[in-house]
């Protein structure tokens, strides 16, 4: 579900609770790697919520600032309760995304239809090899690709990533969760490396 929600995003707001240091640490240890794994390097705004209950020099705020500096993305303190800086967070992310940097970044991240077509071949071959029964595997690939809306003549990254999710669901029932996750990650990498 997280992967599906993140797929295709160009900007992310990572929010933590300044009154609970464990949520700040989870931004660095869980959420940031998760976002990078699915999206590469999108624009990210780090947000410390509940600034009405926490001081700007608190351990949580300092920790979040260090994370944002390491990622070279902005950090803001806000309060959903009082509304302080809530609108500013969205404005900041919007400004980052419509800047010239975003246009250049998006253009450089675009994958050609030819490179995606080659990646499709790799994904299909890998699925068939892992599944074991090539004829049955090809039936599954055709069905799941259709469900995801993959056009093999003019593929796009989002539909291909969705197809990989669907194939992973099938493999979970056949090989178990751990193997299906490893296979899914390998196939995502095939798409990411297609240039």
Short description:
Helices cover 66% and strands 9% of the residues. The chain contains nine helices and three strands.
Notes on the structure:
There is one protein chain. This protein has 195 residues and is mainly α. It folds into two domains: 108 residues, 3-Layer(aba) Sandwich (Rossmann fold), CATH 3.40.50.300; 80 residues, no CATH class. Helices cover 66% and strands 9% of the residues. It has a three-stranded parallel sheet with strand order 1-2-3, with helices on both faces. Strand 2, helix 3 and strand 3 form a beta-alpha-beta unit. Helix 6 crosses helix 7, helix 6 packs antiparallel against helix 9 and helix 7 packs across helix 8. The chain starts with a helix and ends with a helix.
Could you tell me the radius of gyration in angstroms? 20 Å
Give me the secondary-structure category: mainly alpha
Q: What average pLDDT do the residues reach?
A: 85
Quote the distance from N terminus to C terminus: 27 Å
The general outline is elongated
Helix-strand pattern, N to C? HEHEHEHHHHHH
CATH class of the largest domain: Alpha Beta
The main sheet comes to: 3 strands, parallel
CATH fold assignment of the largest domain: Rossmann fold
Low-confidence runs of at least 5 consecutive residues: 105-110
- Biggest sheet: strand arrangement: 1-2-3
- Share of residues in helices: 55-70%
Number of strands: 3
Second rung of CATH, namely the architecture of the largest domain = 3-Layer(aba) Sandwich
As a percent range, the share of strand residues is: 5-15%
Provide the number of structural domains. 2
The CATH homologous superfamily of the largest domain corresponds to P-loop containing nucleotide triphosphate hydrolases
Question: What's the helix count?
Answer: 9
């Amino acid at each position: 579900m997280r992967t599906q929600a993140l797929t295709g995003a160009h900007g992310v707001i990572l929010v933590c609770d300044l009154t609970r240091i464990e949520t700040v640490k989870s931004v660095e240890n869980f959420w940031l790697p998760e976002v990078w794994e699915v999206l590469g390097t999108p624009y990210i705004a780090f947000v410390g919520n509940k600034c009405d209950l926490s001081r700007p020099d608190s351990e949580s705020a300092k920790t979040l600032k260090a994370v944002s500096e390491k990622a070279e993305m902005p950090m803001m303190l806000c309060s959903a309760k009082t509304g302080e800086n809530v609108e500013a967070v969205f404005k900041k992310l919007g400004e980052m995304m419509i800047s010239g940097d975003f246009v250049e970044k998006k253009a450089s991240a675009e994958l050609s239809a030819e490179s995606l077509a080659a990646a499709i071949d790799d994904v299909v071959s890998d699925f068939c090899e892992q599944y074991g029964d090539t004829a049955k595997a090809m039936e599954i690939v055709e069905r799941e690709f259709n469900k995801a809306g993959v056009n093999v003549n003019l593929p796009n990254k989002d539909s291909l990533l969705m197809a990989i999710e669907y194939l992973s669901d099938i493999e979970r029932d056949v090989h178990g969760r751990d193997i299906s996750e490893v296979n899914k990650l390998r196939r995502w990498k095939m798409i990411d490396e297609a240039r």
